[in-house]
Write a structure and sequence with these properties.
The complex is a heterodimer of chains A (107) and B (196). Chain A is mostly helical and 107 residues long. In chain A, 63% of the residues lie in helices and 11% in strands. In chain A, strand 1 and strand 2 form a beta hairpin. In chain A, helix 2 crosses helix 5. The chains are: A mainly alpha (107), B mainly alpha (196).
Chain lengths: 107, 196
């Protein structure tokens, strides 16, 4: 429990990275993202995701389009822009670098 | 027995809510709006949240049920969760926006409108001490302090609300709403949109 709370800010900060990763694989709508993260350390809620996606859209990292659904109103499907893909690659590299540093220190 | 219900449009869906559920919904949306104050595009997020509420409630309605009650809305809101503004609380609690100290009213924990708190924060003073001095001046000046307070209340911008902090008391909320209403009327500034 203590370990989890110590790394809570990091988990919070990594959410954006993970959302970019999920949006990067295929065009998704919010319940897809929630489902992908459910049961992981990064399980989240719509109240968190919508503000985050709005920020990412404003930063022109993601964009969305409306798609009709079989039941109910049309849904917003998100995907990465070119800038979003570049950002994801950069984040991936930086994350690997951090991981290597952590693994190296103390050995 | 027929329960009284209200028809509510939630983004692209239309649903009926009974009184208790309607009140809870309004409360949730108002809370979300206030948490999003300072966000450049709150309307988009609010629309998304409304749609999420509508979808979640629709999913929970029994086939023979047309009116949403707290039995559906409660779990729905639980699943959606309250609004979390990205970046807030993740180590960099205060974004650069607040780094240059600005003379701003602070609604959280305010007694009247937040002028004392704003002045105390700006000059690094003790709020309680400043409040005592204000009350003493109020008595000493025979009411002149009221004018000064009102002037500051009307002129000082409000600091953006900090998500996750204590709820704002009734009077500061009313003062803020009133001042922002006046400013909007006069076209002075858009609330929560002061340049960084």
């Amino acid at each position: 429990m203590i370990v989890e709370s110590k790394l809570a800010p990091i988990r919070k900060g990594l959410l954006e990275f993970l959302v970019l990763k999920i949006v990067g694989t295929t065009s998704v709508y919010v319940p897809d993202i929630l489902r992908r993260l459910a049961g992981t350390e990064f399980a989240t809620q719509e109240g968190t995701l919508y503000p985050l996606l709005s920020k990412l859209r404003r930063e022109e990292l993601v964009l969305y389009e409306w798609k009709e659904s079989d039941a109910g109103p049309p849904r917003k499907y998100y995907r990465l822009t070119d800038a979003g893909k570049a950002q994801l690659t950069a984040l991936d590299e930086y994350w690997n670098l951090i991981n290597r540093t952590i693994a190296d220190i103390g050995h | 027995m027929q329960r009284i219900s209200t028809t509510v449009r939630l983004n692209r869906s239309i649903l009926q809510f009974d009184d208790a559920a309607h009140a809870r919904l309004e409360q949730y949306l108002a809370e979300s709006a206030s948490l999003l104050e300072g966000d450049p595009d709150p309307q988009e997020i609010l629309n998304d949240l409304e749609q999420a509420v509508a979808d979640q409630c629709t999913r929970r309605l029994r086939p023979d049920q047309s009116v949403v009650t707290l039995a559906e809305l409660g779990p729905a809101l639980e699943e959606i969760g309250s609004v979390q503004v990205p970046g807030a609380g993740a180590g960099s609690k205060q974004t650069p926006r607040d780094t240059p100290r600005l003379l701003r009213q602070v609604s959280e924990g305010a007694v009247i409108s937040g002028v004392c708190q704003g002045v105390a924060r700006y000059f690094g003073l003790n709020v309680t001490l400043l409040r005592v001095v204000t009350v003493l001046l109020l008595i000493g000046t025979g009411g002149g302090m009221i004018l000064l307070y009102l002037a500051l209340m009307l002129l000082m911008p409000y600091a953006p609300l900090e998500p996750g902090s204590a709820p704002i008391r009734w009077l500061p909320k009313k003062c803020r709403a009133f001042v922002e209403f006046l400013r909007a009327k006069l076209g002075v500034e858009r609330p929560g949109n002061t340049p960084a």
